[in-house]
Amino acid sequence: MIPFSILDLAPITQGSDATEAFGRTLDLARLGEQLGYRRYWLAEHHNMPGIASAATAVLIGHVAGGTSTIRVGAGGVMLPNHAPLQVAEQFGTLAALYPGRIDLGLGRAPGTDQATLRALRRYADAAETFPDDVLELLHYFEPPQPGQAVRAVPGAGLEVPVWLLGSSLFSARLAAALGLPFAFASHFAPDAMDTALAIYRREFRPSARLAQPYAVLGLNVVAAPDDAQARRLFTTQQQSFINLRRGQPGLVPPPIDDIEAFWTPTEKFGVERALGCAVVGSPDTVRQGLAGFIDRHQPDELIVVTNVFDHALRRRSYEILAEARDAIG
Question: Which is nearest to 141 in space by CA: 90, 214, 75, 98?
Fold first, then answer.
């Protein structure tokens, strides 16, 4: 069976705060480690009341320090928000603290709005230099050369796996050209998934970092004892997407009984399209859905998002998912 991993945004639910969110994140990472998930990634977002993973490298250190074997990383760091040297130093530090366990996924989008981008002291067209910034960052992880004026300390000479993340064809082509592993954000933007995968695999050039293409797909999964309970739990994620599209991001909401009364037909169409890569239901439904998704798209790995309001039920969803993974295997 292909590896399964976890993508987390350290959600801040209504009635809680960031401190509680960080405690739940570490608890979930420890559970993932026990259940055999390959890696635990955290995603950078800014100015989002319901997402606590803004200081991504700091939170990765918190999770890595509280676990022992699971890989921990960024899924991802939004490189246009940062100087490549600073990212190399941060992840070089993490790799020195937790050897062989740190991943660095890089995204091209800012992960925030224009006002926040300015507050980060970055410029609006920073994404245009993304390929050059990736090359600069990769250079900092190479063994230092005599006379090299700028080094990442720590970072230089350390093995930090670098991934490219994306929801379009751009990063697929760049990952292929640079010989890097690629993760597609199909959990919220699935439209170009199949085309991006085909381009990445067809155009891949082996590199010192990777001999053959390796593609990860994002998948929303909500598992519960029966289909109705799972669909109700999934309304948390659906509401969050609608609130964001309404320009009203907030704390992660509890599930509701009637999602049809919450959204307009236009909103429903948009959210169902964005969350089209989702497996929601009972253990049997999840097992069948996973098998079908893997068979259709042939990923090398799945990274799963489970945005469930109640932490105990979120844990249980990942337990059911691990049972389904093992049954398929």
Answer: 90
Q: Which DSSP string corresponds to 123-153?
A: -TTGGGGHHHHHHHHHHHHSPP-TT-S---T
Please identify which residue in the block is written with the tokens 């040297």.
Answer: 85
What's the average model confidence in pLDDT over 261-275? 96
For the chain, first and last CA: distance in Å?
Answer: 5
Handedness of CA 12, 18, 19, 22 (dihedral sign): positive
Q: What is the mean pLDDT of the chain?
A: 95
Task: Give the residues across from 51 on adjacent strands.
Answer: 11
pLDDT band at residue 124 using 50, 70 and 90 as cut-offs: low
The beta strand positions in 169-308, using DSSP E, are 182-184, 215-223, 278-281, 301-305
Positive or negative, the CA dihedral 291, 297, 300, 306 is negative
DSSP 8-state code for residue 41: E
Q: What is the DSSP code string of 63-118?
A: HHHT-SSSEEEEEEEEGGGS-HHHHHHHHHHHHHHSTT-EEEEEESS-SS-HHHHH
pTM for this one?
0.95
Give pLDDT tens digits for 140-162: 999 988 888 899 999 999 999 99
